[in-house]
């Protein structure tokens, strides 16, 4: 199936097709290209949103998009899987995700009035792929939101459980309260949403910085600790002396086999998922052409500090061989281990408090993004009922689309209460994560089409070596999807995602083809 063609299209770069032209012709071409760069104000004529997000909001939204609950609770599993080499996996996958963000950033820079990067798939790959990507991404956001609201209540119950308070019977009420509160934040104004994300991200950053500082102090003191029982870890964890040799001791690239090393890439990839969220905020950002490049370019530094820095700190304190799978298949939180060794008896409560904020931040962002995507789908729809969702409120937010998206997420407590339905939902939710890979591939292909189009801005936020980088990213995403078929845990997700791609993608292509045929027939008459 061919998604794109590489024809002789005009890239808009001055002098590309004028090798025989003189200097004056090149100058005229450059001036023509410059005139093609439209101001944000002119592009905003059809943008009804308020540009209420400030630079600090966007910067911390970008940070929040790279730090999820997986770092706080799931990093123990990743370390156990392949040891210290997991650091290189995080760096490698982070670089690929950076390429995705540079592609999104370049297209959003060219037209910062777009509410979502999905619009560029429609523009450069056609309405059929745009429809597939738009509806698929919205469904992914809703399903992910359902899992996040469940996670919020679970972490909330665990947090109070550390104080001997059992709230299991009230999980449904906790989920309802969180969802209503976060939906309300999204309905008030976009700057209120930005402020909430700013403080959510600040809490996560504080814990990570605290972890790194704790590791540095322990290293300086040559700190040692005895064998200790850690909440969430079966048995007793062996004692050790804090040292960087804990990382280098017996280092191997694949200490638990090459298959585990290979499989670690998919796990790290899913930890980075939704990093693209900052690309949904551009149409509501003040001075987007200044703020967006800064937010995207600083992603690498954030990855090095918050992921790599945290992993190095953890393994310097806790030897990587001390991470083992529990009897129930879970892994202990490295953050709880570190702060417990540092003498913080309420380490579990501290970490789970931060995890609650991380999950709430993710849910808050998902509601925001789902509302904007449904709003865009409604604007593109020919259905009068759908078009009513494509309106903004007096506060310049897509209130109807946000409320509908929030109500869809609200089905999560009902689904979890029905055993038969709950199992199917887990499959669909995990398949949703797999389907995002198709969205990323389409985004990179749309970027290639953009670079070959007359829309290309040579003086914009240009992605270097795009001819090679785009294909590297696409190849990586294909490989990640293939690895889903290699594990029994992810096989169902891989099959379900592939079925969705073939069935719904095929429907979108056929529907668009027949619609165009009918339109041509009508015009012919």
TrEMBL record:
Topology of the protein relative to the lipid bilayer: Multi-pass membrane protein
Membrane spanning stretches: 58-75, 81-100, 135-160, 172-193, 205-225, 258-278, 299-320, 346-367, 397-418, 424-447, 468-486, 492-510
Ranges of residues in domain Amino acid permease/ SLC12A: 57-490
Compositionally biased intervals (Low complexity): 1-21
Keywords: Amino-acid transport, Cell inner membrane, Cell membrane, Membrane, Transmembrane, Transmembrane helix, Transport
Record's subcellular location: Cell inner membrane
Stored InterPro entries: AA-permease/SLC12A_dom, Amino_acid_permease_CS
Compositional bias (Polar residues): 25-37
Keyword Membrane on entry: yes
Predominant localisation class: membrane
Gene Ontology cellular component terms for the protein in this record: plasma membrane
Pfam families associated with the record: AA_permease
Taxonomic superkingdom: Bacteria
Family classification: Belongs to the amino acid-polyamine-organocation (APC) superfamily. Amino acid transporter (AAT) (TC 2.A.3.1) family.
Name the UniProt record assigns to this protein: Amino acid permease
Protein species of origin: Bifidobacterium adolescentis (strain ATCC 15703 / DSM 20083 / NCTC 11814 / E194a)
